[in-house]
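Need tokens for this chain, all 199 residues.
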Amino acid sequence: MDIYTILSSKPHNPHYLNRYIKFIRYCQSKNIGYEGYVENHHICPKSLFPKYKNFNENIWNKILLTARQHFIAHIILSEVYNTPEMKQALWFMSNGKWKKFNKFSIIYDNLRNDKSLREFRSENGKKLGKLTKGKTVVKNSDGEVKRLSVDDPKIKSGEYFGIMKYKTTAKDNAGNTLSVSVDDPNLIKKNIMELQKVM
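Here are the structure tokens for all 199 residues:
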């Protein structure tokens, strides 16, 4: 199967497509004999090429990548196709911090490879779910943050409110998304940071 022909059949950025192909080839050779944590990656993204998403029928479309490699592959793919689907896949992996991918991809990789963390999450996931069920994170006017039951009288009275109340999402002039107070002077004056509300 000619993967390049398939990938180039959709509107794309040729420069980043070439980088993506080189990166995939590099990972294929580098990962031979690797025995650490790996993740399945669709070389031809399933959101753009749904007919190739089944690995059993299209084994050629599957590559095993480390967590860091998988993260970087999605960064490149988001540049290759620049579609909402590619950006969303990357956002889910990075929690919206993809511009700092060098730092976060290493952290993500380290966390995914941490055996003690995997064991802890496996053992404590159900306990944590029971502890947080029916609760929400709130704060008071002094900024004190607590986790309270959703029907707690302190919430109903307005003493405590959602942590995002009186905040808005904005972008600075570098394009970074921020959570800022609605009365932030930079937002009001649109001065140094030139914040703009995100619609």
